[in-house]
Amino acid sequence: MKDSVPRLRRVGARVLLREATEADAKTMNMWQSDRAYWMGEFNYFDSEPVRDYVAELTGSDRLVTRDGGTLLVEHIVDGSLLGDVTWRPARYGPNERSKCWNIGIALIPSARGQGYGAEAQRLFAELLFDVTAAVRVEASTDVQNTAEIRSLEKAGFVREGVARQAQYRHGEWHDMVVYSVVRADLTV
């Protein structure tokens, strides 16, 4: 983040992006306990270790650092947790100015297909532009993930192309569609 890591929060029309608290840890652990259900077909990596959010969020620990993190997606009306958004750095050169953010999203099955993902990803890109110097936010998804492709396009991301055999998942290589939004796209 620019100098330090501020508390991150962004309010939209239907969703709120916010940092996780200790009170959220049990729900997040429940999501992790059935990863095939939680992550769905396109985000499930069976070799990923299961995180213990209760341990990570005990005390003053946060799921946010200067190099990325996790925010929760919360429903504005009833306060229910719909999922999370994550980010990590990607680089297109050795210097700091060539760094951008690569984002991901996972929603609970009952929240999918209702536009929450598009709103959350748009808000998330705006938030990252507000609190970092990055000029690019990117996302990628499996070429067969038509729901996420629609969501990214609805959020204002631009399709850039296909990264062939870029992701190893379920014992096979998968092609990924790459999308981005740049700072200038959101200031028009």
What do these coordinates show?
With 188 residues, this protein is an alpha+beta fold. It has a domain of 129 residues: Gcn5-related N-acetyltransferase (GNAT) (Aminopeptidase, 3-Layer(aba) Sandwich). The protein is built from 6 helices and 9 strands, in the order E-E-H-H-H-E-E-E-E-H-E-H-E-E-H. Strands 1, 2, 3, 4, 5, 6, 7, 8 and 9 form a 9-stranded mixed β-sheet that branches. A hairpin with a 5-residue loop joins strand 4 and strand 5. Helix 4 packs across helix 5. The longest helix has 16 residues. The model has no long low-confidence stretch (mean pLDDT 87).
Helix content: 25-40%
- Give the mean pLDDT: 87
Number of strands: 9
Terminal CA distance: 24 Å
The CATH architecture term of the domain at 9-137 is: 3-Layer(aba) Sandwich
Tell me the radius of gyration. 16 Å
Largest sheet: 9 strands, mixed
CATH topology of the domain at 9-137: Aminopeptidase
Unreliable sequence segments: none
Strand content: 35-45%
In CATH, what is the class of the domain at 9-137? Alpha Beta
CATH superfamily label of the domain at 9-137: Gcn5-related N-acetyltransferase (GNAT)
* Helical/strand content category: alpha+beta
**Number of helical elements:** 6
Any idea what the shape is? globular
